[in-house]
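Exam review. A common question shows you a sequence with its structure tokens and asks you to describe the fold in words. Practice with the pair below. Do the first one on your own.
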Amino acid sequence: MKLPRAVYAIWISFDKKTWTLIGRDTDSLAMALNPEVDTKQNVLGETIVEHSGFKPELALDNYLARTEDAIYENIRNIAMNRLSDEASTSAYMLEAILTDEVCKSDTVTLTGDAWIENVIIVPQEYGKDMTGFAIPFNVNMNGNRKQGTVSVTERIPTFTEETEAA
């Protein structure tokens, strides 16, 4: 069964209590994994492929600032005051693959697999065109990725971290 794109949902939060669902103003949003792969040939004529990991990044090129978004004040503050310190730019990203399209959580509770991770938010510019005041930003992974499950009601996630069996 082909999954609809809208089962993959991303939220950003600066406090892990109030979350903003990302993607309202875009029809394309993808996590760039940026794999680190090196291909070499040795003296025996063999090809060696070394995969040393990923440097994932998410670019939100179409974020239109909305005062009701939980992330708005923080992102505005980072951009307008040109903040670069970790304390100001640190946030959390929650990714989920849900049982149905995230918009369906307006009427039913959805569940799914989820991953939460520390991130750094880096605005790229602000202003843009007449569609609205935009603050495009990049989300850079900063470690501490944890897997679990999520339940989503009215587009608001509740994350439960996976625990190891005793």
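Now try the second one, then compare your answer with the model answer below.
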Amino acid sequence: MIQDGDRVMVCLSGGKDSYALLTLLLDLQKRAPITFELVAVNLDQKQPGFPADILPAYLDQLGVDYRIVDADTYAIVKEKVPAGKTTCSLCSRLRRGVLYRTAKVLGANKIALGHHRDDMVETFFLNLFHGGRLKGMPPKLVTDDGHHVVIRPLAYCREEDLARYARGMEFPIIPCNLCGSQENLQRQAIKQWLQDQEKAHPGRTDNIFLGLQSVTPSHLADRLLFDFVGLIPSHQPEPEGDTLFDSAGERGALHLSHAEGRHLHFVKAGNFARMKD
């Protein structure tokens, strides 16, 4: 994610994840066999009640290079979005636009965000349930304007581990309940659902995350990802395919014994023990 000579803009919200991200990157900067720069950035969107003094004081104490970006996106959203309608889409676009422009001004080629494994799984289900799309949150991508690379160094970290780390570090956490938007409420509902699943079936979130890393386009239905129209039989078994009905002389569990009228009779193959699970 980070290469020699990179200038990384670390987005700091005041939540546990972004504090952990900055702390870990500062530690990595000291020990890594490459040289890279860090600049912390906080976007003050002028939401009512946001404690604007906490982050500057913390960053001054830490002695890191930082910028506080003032952009009253809150007023724009309130003006443009009718009462009762979800504000998330416009707010997110405005926030991304400001951060991308800030990265350009600061000469940063990488933008580091504090999303973790659980965020990525929740985003997948948000898009699936509410947007009808199999779309998640990748560990690394190019920005919409094509000028920067967004990285998520905490992508493989569990939220509970980050929460434990934040408590141990005693970060000055800024509450994340300033926005009661519809998407945040939907995200909380999905988060609770996943937690219930994890309690009933330990390891389920890990399995879902593994699934996001092991996609089989031929077993979905997106014609842009897989050429279903041009699909033809190869007359050869797939190396990683189901071996249950491979020919009896190879790996199959069953083979056709004989046909009798309208009945076809299959029997257990001699090499049944070689069948893959």
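Model answer, second protein: The mean pLDDT is 86. The beta strands are 7-11, 37-44, 66-70, 110-112, 140-142, 149-151, 254-260, 263-268. Full marks require stating both points clearly.
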